[in-house]
């Protein structure tokens, strides 16, 4: 049916969203680490 046909597409979309989310989290934590490093380094 229609649902079965859209399932692979939905799964692919979900994986892409998760991938983007992980990338965003990674860059966010990297930014926090950089900020933290500059704050502690200036003491």
What does the secondary structure layout of this molecule look like, with pairings?
Elements: H1 2-41
Question: Low-confidence runs (pLDDT<50, min 5 residues)?
Answer: none
The CA-CA distance between the termini, in Å, is 64 Å
The count of β-strands is: 0
- Multimeric state of these chains? single chain
Residues in helix, % = over 70%
> What does the average pLDDT come to?
90
- Overall structural class, as computed from helix and strand content, comes to mainly alpha
Characterize the biggest β-sheet. Answer: none
- How many individual helices? 1
Rg over alpha carbons: 19 Å
Form type:
rod-shaped
Offer a few descriptive terms.
43 residues, mainly alpha, 0% strand, rod-shaped, single chain
Protein model, in words:
By secondary structure, the chain is mainly alpha-helical. It has one helix at residues 2-41. The chain is rod-shaped. The model has no long low-confidence stretch (mean pLDDT 90).
Summarize it.
The protein has one helix at 2-41. By secondary structure, the chain is an all-alpha fold.
